[in-house]
Amino acid sequence: MKNVLLLSLAVVAAVGLLLAAAATSPPALPQYTADNQMLRPENYRDWVFLSAGLGMSYSPQAGGHEMFTNVFVPQWAYQEFQKSGKWPDKSIFVVEERDSQTRGSINKVGHFQTDLMGMGVEVKDKSHFPEEWAYFNFGDGTKSARANPKEGCFNCHAAHAAVEHSFVQFYPTLKPVAKKFSTYNAQRENVDGAK
Amino acid sequence: MKNVLLLSLAVVAAVGLLLAAAATSPPALPQYTADNQMLRPENYRDWVFLSAGLGMSYSPQAGGHEMFTNVFVPQWAYQEFQKSGKWPDKSIFVVEERDSQTRGSINKVGHFQTDLMGMGVEVKDKSHFPEEWAYFNFGDGTKSARANPKEGCFNCHAAHAAVEHSFVQFYPTLKPVAKKFSTYNAQRENVDGAK
Known about the structure:
Two copies of one chain form a homodimer.
Chain A: H1 2-23, E1 38-39, E2 48-57, E3 67-73, H2 75-84, E4 92-101, E5 109-124, E6 133-138, E7 144-145, H3 153-160, H4 175-180
Antiparallel strand pairs in A: 1-7, 2-3, 3-4, 4-5, 5-6
């Protein structure tokens, strides 16, 4: 009798583990080399899309060829944001740059997306970065990258993002969530120079 | 002994069901009213993003205010496409229209996305539509919609889409998949009138 019960418990445990493994992929978390370089995120196109822009620039002098930017976060981090209006530790944001084309196939005007041109990554990871947030650039084929100096993305995100270091003012489906949880800084919507 | 075994089996089954339910959402499938109107798809922002366009139009006379279009498909359909270069029966495509804004917060040039303006839906569902593919429009708050007449989207998708009725020529991450499985009609990339 005791053996049957033990066997049953073992079967329950085994079936449970198998089902859990089959039904979920491991959550997407930041990975690093031994010297704290971040590994290029993979499979981010399966993540949740936050928004896209075309030719966005924080400098009025921007010009030249316009590119699309697509922003993705892992499902697990997105679900946490829905529950709290905040980003959990180990959140990853991928900003993908894609070339734009106008005439092609039946499209006559406007712009559609083509080749991958570059990738920026933002992470919130207090165990790896004393200031929690860090920024990386991955060119074509770059497998790992060191965090950018603070003078780049970090300072701008700290000064202008509406939720923590995240530009939720540009993510229309997350804005109402952050407002509901009072984590949204509406001042950051003001156009600079028009304050 | 027999009772213990039966009990064990019941426990195994119950744990299995609970784990499966907790770990996976039900796959997103098209839902209809009794008179074959499609119900508005929900939670499509958790699906896989295929691409975004800005102001895309198939008419050279298009003008006025440009809108973004974001395209989403359910995870399960996307995974099937990765394995075959074809869309499985019951695939759903949501094309979301979002308004665009230029100046806002620290953004000076280019365009970012704002309010939802409308939604088009394409389904592949041979048990509901004799020609497999059907097209719907959902305005703000529309809960169900009847399929559009063939003269609208259907004929254009049939004549111009690169994979079945799907404009894979505008989805840069799916193009190489379809090419690998030889389901891609490269002729459909030609600009009309330049053939």
